[in-house]
Amino acid sequence: MKVLxxxxxxxxxxxxxxxxxxxxxxxxxxxxRKEEQASFFKELGAETSVVDLEQDIDTIAxxxxxxxxxxxxxxxxxxxxxxKTIMIDLDxxxxxxxxxxxxxxxxxxxxxxxxxxxxxxxxxxxxxxxxVAAKHYxxxxxxxxxxxxxxxxxxxxxxxxxxGAVTVAEEVEIDEVPREDIARVIxxxxxxxxxVGKEFQVITGANxxxxxxxxxxx
Length: 218
Description:
The protein has one domain (2-154): Rossmann fold. The protein is 39% helix and 23% strand. The protein contains 8 helices and 11 strands. It has helices at residues 11-22, 38-43, 57-64, 82-102, 118-123, 129-143, 179-190, 211-216; strands at 2-6, 27-32, 47-50, 69-72, 107-111, 148-154, 156-158, 165-169, 176-178, 198-203, 209-210. The strands form 2 sheets. A 9-stranded mixed beta sheet has the order 3-2-1-4-5-6-10-8-11, sandwiched between helices. It has a two-stranded parallel ribbon with strand order 7-9. The radius of gyration is 16 Å and the shape is globular. The model has no long low-confidence stretch (mean pLDDT 96).
């Protein structure tokens, strides 16, 4: 399975492309914003495509041609304003969904926020609410398509070394989770068709199980 990783140069994205390239059944195509970001991925043997998410659907669809799945890991980041949140986390996500459809790609994995229900928007801080709202509407747009989607809701992301063990459920108490383990969950989701049409939260938790077992429990 060839996988287009959107936001490949991000922290989750780099782990993800690395794990995909180590897999026997998957192969990555890294969608990056600048050519100077390409060397990391080329050293892994991954194909690259230079596309800015603020470009049009046709440009993104061209990057998605010939792949079997799209993973959206892109994000505007915590140090940008509400404008970039709208342009990347909402509009960029929706354009990527539409590009996947245009390119004939059925499988789509979305990396979302921990809780994107409407109450979560109301409960969020003033600075965080726009991000939750953007993710809410991107998730709803994806669920309204006929794509074979999986929506992953990570807990508080850390750069700690992954353990390969997580807690996965439709709803869990919020806790931390390493970005490296979220990348492992994405790979396991791509390899498990039972995750199609599902969305779930992921944390490390007090009694984690191996990523493969955790994803199989969904």
